[in-house]
């Protein structure tokens, strides 16, 4: 009969990875049973040996362990196959180390440091922590979904494996050390040798990269000069030779003060507070920019020929105007100064500065398309194409050919030579996907692949075409509700909602109505039309469920029916003119249960949090079932939690963090 070993882990993914590792090495001699605390653990575990994946799991699983059962807590290590990705990061790079608890995050950092990853500066990050310190890069052992949205790059180093020291201890426990110890050591040594070979190859690639980099710098159409911490020149390309009249041979290695005599130029070069300046040098009108890395004292200066830049920008803008693929609106075109719209514009402006996908949510008529135009206009892609497609306006077959294009002969009626799709036409720029909640599951699958791979395949085509497109999507629908109904893919939802901005309805920014009315009068070429007494007050008393579009229509109506130079209250249309809220909408039924059950669910979350128990929907359901005669379903609990989150009473996280009550939620319970 085989020896018996039980493995206890925290998550299913960890269980699967470590079980496969142990089965591969010991499966022939030992029968291995594995359980994840997040899934299921028998009431009592007893075996020849019990292995815990971490000290945290040892504490969590302690009540299930039979007295006297021999056990060990595994020492874990990073999978060497992923080490090279960390070695590619520059010396001194700050990274977030993401895991599901603070203890696990710190343990991962400790493991990496013991392996010699001392060229990085680690900061632990786990659910509930708000401050990311502005760090754009994260590493994680398999917990990618826990990375904060602000992170630009996530490196998944995979689930940490059981270290050779623990494997040897297991062999020793089962008296298999002499039989298998050498095999494990050889495997371990082999991985080290393989890593050494990769490091050697990386060094060769670095030398080759430096040569290519010099070629690139020489080929840039701007002057490029770099100085080190002693302000000595380390880079001096041909264009800066032309602008300065100095040769590279003469300039390299010399202090910058020996090369340039212009006091204004020298002051800029030596003053790190200034990012850019305009000046003339040897008859050239130049714009000088500074680029400095936080972790380095080296500084790069870019000398742009202002005359050439202006000419190129005018040409690019003129070409885009010809195609019509251009953003027509800026944030200045979004009228209003209420706190709600100012906040939305501030967020939108920040989102514009990144290349990440954006999901814009807002009711119909709030101006979501204006935000999409404005975000593109403020981005680095300003002089690249901006294309928009409305998913609710076209049938699915036509949408597919419009988005992805087609090859000649792909279907009856296909144009000779085929056609480029919108994604291909938007290459380098932005594509705006309006009414994203209206597309079919089939089209969602194709769209997901485009976002993941940044490549398309035309209808009837066999080759993939790489693209570089920023995606902005908009919807007035509750995508989470559509996910629950099986009408929208959850993976696509998370791919689109990397960045997010909510456009407030007009009823939440009524103080903007006077400015909006003034704007609509200007657009109708009637700026001198007077507004009668009480008219603005009447307009501000309505809730505008059709939002800005409905207000604009109302102004058009008033201009049409009013007589003379003044629009009066009497010109307002009757009640049947205005859009009314639909029955049974979320506005009228904001909760599926009464306030009693809301408070009950919140109380259970608080109790589970205080007991350090994962407040999952299943756990809340079990607790409610034992206390209520008519408990909620898990689906209803999800909706209640979503409402509590919207009210600021809870935060909802994936993994063992589960649902956490906020200070506001705790105060609400105490006052009830």
From TrEMBL:
It holds the Pfam family AAA_lid_14. It comes from the Bacteria. GO terms for biological process: regulation of DNA-templated transcription. Residues 334-560 form the Sigma-54 factor interaction domain. Keywords: ATP-binding, Nucleotide-binding. SMART domains: AAA, PAS. Residues 209-269 form the PAS domain. GO terms for molecular function: ATP binding. InterPro entries: AAA+_ATPase, AAA_lid_NorR, P-loop_NTPase, PAS, PAS-like_dom_sf, PAS_fold, RNase_R_HTH_12, Sigma_54_int. PROSITE patterns: PAS, SIGMA54_INTERACT_1, SIGMA54_INTERACT_2, SIGMA54_INTERACT_4. This is AAA family ATPase.
């Amino acid at each position: 009969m085989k020896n018996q070993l039980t493995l206890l882990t925290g998550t299913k993914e960890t269980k699967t990875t470590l079980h496969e590792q142990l089965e591969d090495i010991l499966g022939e001699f030992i029968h291995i049973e594995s359980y994840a605390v997040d899934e299921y653990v028998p009431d009592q575990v007893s075996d020849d040996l019990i292995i815990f994946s971490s000290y945290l799991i040892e504490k969590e699983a302690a009540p299930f362990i039979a007295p006297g059962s021999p056990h060990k807590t595994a020492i874990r290590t990073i999978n060497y196959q992923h080490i090279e990705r960390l070695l590619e990061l520059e010396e001194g790079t700050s990274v977030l180390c993401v895991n599901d608890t603070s203890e696990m995050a710190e343990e991962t950092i400790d493991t990496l440091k013991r392996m010699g990853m001392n060229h990085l500066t680690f900061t632990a990050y786990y659910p509930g922590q708000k401050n990311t310190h502005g760090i754009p890069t994260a590493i994680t052992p398999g917990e990618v979904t826990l990375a904060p949205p602000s992170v630009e790059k996530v490196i998944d180093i995979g689930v940490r494996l059981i270290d050779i020291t623990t494997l040897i201890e297991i062999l020793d426990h089962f008296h298999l050390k002499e039989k298998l110890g050498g095999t494990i050591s050889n495997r371990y040594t082999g991985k080290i040798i393989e890593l050494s070979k990769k490091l050697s190859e990386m060094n060769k690639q670095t030398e080759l990269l430096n040569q290519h980099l010099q070629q690139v710098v020489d080929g840039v159409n701007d002057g490029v000069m770099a100085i080190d911490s002693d302000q000595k020149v380390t880079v001096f390309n041909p264009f800066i030779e032309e602008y300065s009249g100095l040769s590279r041979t003469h300039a390299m290695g010399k202090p910058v003060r020996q090369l340039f005599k212009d006091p204004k130029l020298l002051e800029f070069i030596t003053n790190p507070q200034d990012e850019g300046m305009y000046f003339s040098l040897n008859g050239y009108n130049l714009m000088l920019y500074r680029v400095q890395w936080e972790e380095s004292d080296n500084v790069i200066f870019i000398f742009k020929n202002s005359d050439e830049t202006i000419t190129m920008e005018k040409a690019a803008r003129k070409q885009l105007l010809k195609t019509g693929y251009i953003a027509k609106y800026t944030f200045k075109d979004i009228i209003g100064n209420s706190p709600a719209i100012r906040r939305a514009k501030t967020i939108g402006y920040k989102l514009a500065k990144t290349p990440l996908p954006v999901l814009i949510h807002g009711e119909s008529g709030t101006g979501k398309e204006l935000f999409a135009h404005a975000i593109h206009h403020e981005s680095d892609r300003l002089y690249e194409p901006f294309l928009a497609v409305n998913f609710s306006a076209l049938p699915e077959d036509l949408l597919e050919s419009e988005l992805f294009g087609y090859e000649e002969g792909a279907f009856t009626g296909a144009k000779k030579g085929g056609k480029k799709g919108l994604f291909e036409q938007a290459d380098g720029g932005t594509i705006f996907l309006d009414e994203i909640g209206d597309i079919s599951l089939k089209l969602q699958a194709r769209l997901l692949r485009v976002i993941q791979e940044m490549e398309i395949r035309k209808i009837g085509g066999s080759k993939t075409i790489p693209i570089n497109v920023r995606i902005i999507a908009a919807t007035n629908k509750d995508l989470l509700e559509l996910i629950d109904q099986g009408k929208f893919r959850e993976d696509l939802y998370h791919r689109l909602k990397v960045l997010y901005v909510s456009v407030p309805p007009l009823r939440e920014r009524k103080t903007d109505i006077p400015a909006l009315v003034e704007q609509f009068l200007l657009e109708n070429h009637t700026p001198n039309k007077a507004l009668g007494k009480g008219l603005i007050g009447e307009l501000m008393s309505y809730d505008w469920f059709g939002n800005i579009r409905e207000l604009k229509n109302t102004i058009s109506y008033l201009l049409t029916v009013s007589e003379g130079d003044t629009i009066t209250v009497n010109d307002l249309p009757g009640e049947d003119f205005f859009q009314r809220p639909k029955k049974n909408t979320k506005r009228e039924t904001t909760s599926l249960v009464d306030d009693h059950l809301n408070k009950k669910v919140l109380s259970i979350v608080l109790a589970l949090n205080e007991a350090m128990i994962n407040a999952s929907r299943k756990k809340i359901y079990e607790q409610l079932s034992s206390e209520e005669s008519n408990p909620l379903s898990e689906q209803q609990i999800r909706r209640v939690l979503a409402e509590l989150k919207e009210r600021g009473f809870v935060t909802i996280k994936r993994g063992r963090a589960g649902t956490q009550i906020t200070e506001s939620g705790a105060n609400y319970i105490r006052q009830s």
